[in-house]
Write a structure and sequence with these properties.
single chain; alpha/beta; Rossmann fold; 2 domains; 9 strands; binds phosphoric acid mono(formamide)ester; binds norvaline
């Protein structure tokens, strides 16, 4: 059966832990002789309906390093942008390529692509989820703090957005202790919260950043206005007053805490320049790990 990676729930807890281990190996072995080439002779379509720096470049480099051919497809310059249904695109692309990564708005578009195509589909971010990023973040926590991953306390400060939802799914899968501070009206998806708790995640949603960050080993935030929400930026700036992760807030975290941000960051809004450039920040390792983790995921899906 064709496996897809549309959500953190698509991998078992054991597979997530194994992929973290594999991504660590790929990081250590990068550029050394004997690199695996599971994509030799294969082409991977990388479809983007939204902007990207990290996802596009890390997937293109990753496919190349696994011996395959990456093909960038801009939705607006293809027939997708003129309304060709995703189910038709799925069937056509499945005749050409061996794997598809899609960055899109609706999670349903990804589900439809996976349902009608015959090759594995990877979610490269939707309005609901960003699972490749959270897999890379788990690798970063494993490397920077150590394993097992459920030893640590996790905090999310800010919008209950796609990143927050994927972290909640990760908490469900790995039984993590995760506290999220979100302003009223900007809380994460209730259905995902309920399912993650059912799977064993120790998850609390609170109003005040101080209540989420107290004693946390891993502190995470993201932009207040995600792609597609630009028109709400001013309203959101007001709603998120007090949610800036600065040195004063971070002082309440555990000793040796690490700060994560999927990037791009808005310094002075969700995070201070001092925190992102400071000793707790691991954001550049986090960005690098997109490459290694996505190689591990692609290797797993085409095996
Ligand atoms: N973090 C992340 O997905 O970055 P891009 O939007 O640059 O791909
Ligand atoms: N929440 C952000 C993440 C960007 C990588 C967005 O969706 O724009």
């Amino acid at each position: 059966m064709t496996r897809h990676f549309l959500s953190m729930f698509d991998f078992t807890p054991g597979e997530i832990v194994a992929l973290v281990g594999r991504a660590k190996e790929l990081r250590a072995g990068r550029g050394k002789p004997g690199a695996p080439a599971p994509l030799a002779g294969k082409t991977v379509a990388l479809i983007f309906e939204k902007a990207s720096t990290r996802t596009r470049v890390s997937f293109e480099v990753g496919v190349h390093e696994l011996g395959g051919h990456p093909m960038f497809v801009s939705a607006k310059d293809s027939q997708l942008g003129r309304g060709e249904p995703i189910r038709d695109t799925a069937r056509v692309l499945s005749r050409y390529v061996h794997l598809i990564m899609l960055r899109t708005f609706s999670q349903d578009t990804l589900i439809e692509l996976a349902r009608h195509g015959t090759v594995p589909v990877i979610n490269g971010l939707s309005d609901l989820l960003h699972p490749c990023q959270v897999m890379s973040d788990l690798q970063t926590v494993a490397e920077q703090r150590g394993e097992p991953l459920d030893r640590w306390r996790y905090a999310w400060i800010g919008d209950g957005n796609n990143m927050a939802n994927s972290w909640i799914e990760a908490a469900g899968q790995l039984k993590l202790d995760l506290r999220l501070a979100c302003p009223p009206g900007y809380r994460p998806d209730e259905g995902i919260l309920a399912e993650a708790r059912r799977r064993g995640g120790k998850i609390r949603v609170v109003d005040r950043p101080a209540d989420a960050i107290a004693g946390a080993d891993v502190v995470n935030t993201d932009v207040w206005a995600s792609m597609g929400q630009e028109a709400e930026a001013e309203k959101r700036r007001k709603a998120f007053a007090g949610f800036l992760v600065d040195d004063a807030l971070l002082a309440a975290a555990a000793p040796g805490s690490i700060f994560l941000h999927c990037l791009p960051a808005h310094r002075g809004e969700e995070v201070s320049d001092a925190v992102i450039e400071g000793p707790h920040s691991r954001v550049w390792d986090q960005a690098e790990n997109r490459l290694h983790m996505q190689k591990a995921i692609m290797e797993f899906l085409v095996r």
